[in-house]
Amino acid sequence: MGDISHAEAVAEELRTAAGRVVRRLRRESGMPVQHATALGRLERGGPMTASGLAAAEQITPQSMAATLNALYDRGLVDRAADPGDRRQILWSVTSGGSAVIAEDRARRARWLVTAIDELTDEEAERLRDAARLLNMIMDRSEAGGA
């Protein structure tokens, strides 16, 4: 088997590290991943149908319906008839849901800040540079690049 390229080695290390960070941040969350992602998408994108949310999250409509019903039972989302098509139901985040999202984000941020505080100033700056590069990669990717 031949040697892997430098880019392949960096990609593998990045994939592994990013996965570990994402898993750790999810553990800091006070709710199941499906609930957090549905709430976050509704908060960012505004009211949506269950099928629209399911498609956006790439899960089955049945799974999304279960998630939305659980969130509804907790008072974190509300549902209303779509004014443009009364046969459709639009789901939206309640003020209680927004408060839960804010606390969840703050909890995860506190963990990350604590971890970064353990770095030297130079290491923290290198991490900031890495974050900028990751954002640059994503901006190019989303613009149709690599």
UniProtKB/TrEMBL annotation:
Pfam families from the xrefs? MarR_2 (PF12802)
In this chain the HTH marR-type domain maps to: 1-136
UniProt xrefs under InterPro entries:
HTH-type_Bedaq_tolerance (IPR052526), HTH_MarR-typ (IPR000835), WH-like_DNA-bd_sf (IPR036388), WH_DNA-bd_sf (IPR036390)
Domain of life according to the entry: Bacteria
**Which PANTHER family does the annotation name?**
CONSERVED PROTEIN, HTH-TYPE TRANSCRIPTIONAL REGULATOR RV0880
Q: What is this protein called?
A: MarR family winged helix-turn-helix transcriptional regulator
